[in-house]
Amino acid sequence: MSDQPNLDYKIVLLGDSSVGKSSLVFRLSKNRFCENLEPTIGGLCVIQNIEIGESEVKLKIWDTAGQERFHSLTPLYYRGAKGAIIVYDITNSESYKRATDWILELRENGEQDAKIVLVGNKIDLERKVVEDTTAQKFADKNDLHFFTTSAKTGEGVNQVFFVLAQLISQMNISNNENKNNISEYLKNHSLQNKNNNLNTVDLQTKKSKKKNKNCC
Ligand SMILES: Nc1nc2c(ncn2[C@@H]2O[C@H](COP(=O)(O)OP(=O)(O)OP(=O)(O)O)[C@@H](O)[C@H]2O)c(=O)[nH]1
Ligand SMILES: [Mg+2]
Fold first, then answer.
1. What is the CATH number of the domain that holds 128?
2. pTM attached to this predicted model
3. Beta bridge partners of 121
4. Is the pLDDT at 125 greater than 80, yes or no?
5. For a tag on the chain, would you pick the N or C end, based on fewer CB atoms within 10 A?
């Protein structure tokens, strides 16, 4: 580890209720999955340290409530966020529509230079109704990165947080080596991450060395 100052990034998860925002954070921070998480009330902050190259990055991850009654609170959570993960459930078309609305809202009212990642969650389920190509086209048109994940199996989850942290670092640090790292990473993992498993990217999270448990 170098003696560079620690980097501190606020990021926010947004999306309809039940799409799996809390489950993604739970998977990242504890490497576990719970079949019956309670809906989030308001918002919760989870701190996760990850290492990117020579830098240690502290992610302050704000997990928001998707229920409509909390919508008016959400600007409190996305204000000041350098990155946002917009989640939909691949088995629920309404949640996809809601995700695209969130992106427009963020672009209008969020931080101007915030990096946004679109995530289709629950790919372990077979009844997919939102095609990846639809989401990918939307992502391309709006200059976003698109990933698919399963909080249940862990597939793709670490990649989402890693790439977002990289994108924010790229914005903050004008460092050619970092830019090369991210280009290489994205070339190998963006969208084609479907066949990767959780262990293909070592986030070097402090807690990632815990045993993989599949139930809370
Ligand atoms: N099969 C499957 N179920 C999932 C996945 N992610 C979450 N779930 C389930 O979906 C339900 C809702 O997950 P949450 O993580 O609480 O959803 P949320 O987006 O945080 O919901 P709010 O807090 O109400 O906004 C829970 O029963 C989870 O177990 C996944 O990847 N696959
Ligand atoms: Mg939640």
1. 3.40.50.300
2. 0.84
3. 89
4. yes
5. N
Measured between alpha carbons, how far is 195 from 197 in angstroms, rounded to an integer? 6
Residue with CA nearest ligand 1 atom 13? 20
Across the chain, mean pLDDT equals: 83
Residue 215 lies in a domain: no
Dist. CA 23 → ligand 1 center (Å): 5
In a domain, 119, yes or no: yes
Angle at 83 between CA 76 and CA 51, to 5 degrees: 125
Nearest CA-CA partner of 18 in 118, 87, 104: 87
In a domain, 169, yes or no: yes
For residue 52, the cross-strand partners are 55
Instruction: Choose among 67, 90, 65: nearest CA to 76.
Output: 65
Ligand nearest 74 Cα, by number? 1
Lowest mean pLDDT among 65-69, 106-110, 163-167, 211-215: 211-215
Q: How confident is the model at residue 199 (pLDDT cuts 50, 70, 90)?
A: very low
